[in-house]
Fold:
Amino acid sequence: MKTESAHAESANEKILQIRARKLAQSRADENKNGDTFSVVEFRIAHETYALRLQRIRIIHPLKELTFIPGTPDFIKGVINLRGEIISVIDLKVFFDLPDQGNTRLSQVIILTSDQMEFGILADEILGVGEILKNDIRASLPTLTGIRADYLKGVTSNGVVVLDDEKLLTDEKMCINL
Amino acid sequence: MNNQDLHQQLLEAFKIEAEERIASMFSNLTDLEKSTDPENRGKMLEIVYREAHSLKGAARSVNIIPVETLCQEIESLFSKLKDAAIDFTPDIFDTLHDSVGSIETYLSTPEPQREKLEKAIHDLAKKLSLYKQPENGAAPQNRHIEEKELPAAPQNIRAPDGPLRKKKSSAPPSEKAASNPTAEEAQPNRFSQQPAAKTWLADTVRISTAKLDSLLLKTEELITLKQILNQHLEQIQDTSRSIGKWRKLSEKSKKELYEIRRQFHQSSLLDQFFDLYDMNHDQINDTDNQLSELSASMTHSSRILGGMVDDLLDEVKKTSLLPFSTLFAILPRMIRDISRDLGKDVDLEISGGEIEIDKRILEGLKDPLIHLIRNAIDHGIEPPDARRLKQKPPWGKIRITVFQPESNKVEVTISDDGKGIDLETIRHKAVHAGLISASRAAELSDEETTALILQSGISTSPLITEISGRGLGMAIVQEHIENLSGLFLISTDNGHGTAFKIELPVSLSTFRGVIVSASGHDFILPVAHIEHTIQIEPGDIKSAENKSVISVNNRPVSLISLSDILGLPHQPLPDTNAKKFTMPVVVMGSGEKTIACIVDHVINEQEVLVKSLGKQLKRVPNISGATILGNGRVVPILNVNDLISNASGKSISRAMEKKIDMKQKERQKSLLIVEDSFTSRTLLKNILEASGYQIKTAIDGEDGFRQLRTQPFDGVISDVEMPKMNGFELTRKIRANKQLSEKPVILITSLDSREDRERGVEAGADAYIVKSKFDQSNLLEVLERLL
Structure:
């Protein structure tokens, strides 16, 4: 019980942080003419990923996941977010990455647009950061395969920057069987 | 509120009113055209007249002049028709239909584009006004009298008239009374009912559906609260129980402590301790009592709240119930138009229109219903000539029957007496479309073939018309109905017609659901689709045409496993406490489309609030949505339609069969029979195997003991007189062996003396059965008791 509320608190803090950053960022964007953008950085297995703040609705600790049979493997199930049901995906499976074992998917980052909404499972939320646009390198030889299509690129310190718009609009993400 | 707002509000109200009046005019005009009963005609005339009159007034109040003008013309034409001043002709009916249609079109056109339509309305108004002038030039009043004197005049022209007539009746009263006194007498009664129907409207208020919907939604959320409350109640009861245990423990320790005190010599320190202890004990007592009271009052409150929430929800749901007749109002005109275009004569017969159903379901039913009726006219009902050849009446009949078999279930049947569905054509088309192979097509049962219509790309109509024939229709109809949590069934009788049955819940959003589990996952099945929940034994499963079936109410039903259908990984079957190994089976569906589904558990039944699976999961096979339980857990809701169609032609998988087999073996008790006589050995083995035991045999005590030490057995049945080692020795050896000492041993013998029996007991046998008294049931009873 205690750890759960602690989780919730830390998640709330994160959300507040994100909101504060968002507000600050919109000004920063105007000032700096879009040279940097704010991201949430998180860890899946041993890799650090980043997602722009714009499309993130909320970050929520993962409590209970309900498996939905008949869905593709990357759909891990659905969660109850305050009475709303939202599906949750595992990027490792979606990207067809080799199973890196020891993951403790404990957080859900919910990406949203008018047409689409889903949660991305993460091991750990590292925080909100700024990424310089020209620090992103388009591709790395190690980032070939399916994953390359959904990336903006990789920063100089190895953060994998995901393309949120591509993820939200990709046909493969929409399950209509 | 400024004038602009007021006008806008008036316009909204007018729109709703106009829709109703237009629908009523259409349906009564159509009936009027068909009806030959003068009394009915009079009623219908009166209704159309009044509707036109009211619509005219309403149009005037919102300043929609073209509608007002046209209604004025309709009204005055009807006034003449009522007075029988002019005759009905098919031409008049067509113009009237066109007029009402043009009002509808005009009002549904956005204001800026309405101007274009005004000329058409103007022309129609002119045409209508021309009918009022009798061509023969005779003055209406004269003609009225003349007609009365003409015996050849059709009766129905002088259709009885309505209350408006009363106002005017001052003009020809004496004449009317003299010529037709009975009609005059009948009138006050008949018409006195109509104002009564109108005053009913005075008790009603129009509320926008959006407001009602939000009210309903909020009320539905209370169900979750109710369930949460029940869970809290359980928690309190748990706490209460554990405090009760604590109290008992404390009482017990109190006694023991007092004993300690008695034995020790009294000391003030010990007394102090005892005071503290007593206080502590009293406190526990108090807390226990308080908690019990709290629990009792909470149970009470929770029950009251639960009842109130249910009642409130019921009442709120009722506000969004509408009779089917509101949906059916559009049909008479539609059928008239379509059948005229196709050169067919079609009669519509509706029953059960007064049955009420959730407005949202009714709205969702509109498209499928229209589609089915179009199909029936286009494909089903033959042209009059063809019908005559088949010795059917030239006019086809479409029957819509609404029936409410249960409080939350409605069945709508749409049937026609047309040519039915030609199953051969369907088979042929399905092969042609590549849906099935030719050899498979030949094997298909009629029922399976009918189900093919539901797949896209199959139509029996050789001709693609504007109305139907593209072969998409039925698939879409089924999808629409599924979205309403309904079931869709087709039955056809080649040459005699087709019937479509739609089963629907009365209200949409909440329903009773049963939680079932398969391979460790929970799912909800709508109670409305469940026929029975039964327990079956492996032996109940029969095989027919490579399918597993069980008999439900003496009728074979194909059996599948929920884990198989959902593609869930197989887990060992759960343990049951029952003596025999049984599996819970849910029988679901309706009529021919019934399946039996093995599940791991049937957990409980509860109210279910349907939620969508979110934006990403648009459609998932076999799952129609999900619900959130009181504890916040999400449980998927199964789509029974999908389950049934996915189950067709399937059987339980090998994996499932294996699981059942293993479980059965696991539950079987194994026995060792030790007997030197081959005949006795075989006899015993057969009897016991037939009763479900697993049997191994040994030829003497020595052999038996060897087997007992190397394999596990649940019990031993042994003869007494055997070579090498007899039964008494064997029993003694078993009792002396650490691992085997507890095994039940039954001795069966021909030795029937007191000494022998005593020797047996001495050796440690659990039962001693004498062969001469031997009968099966005795042995089986003993085994049942000992194992």
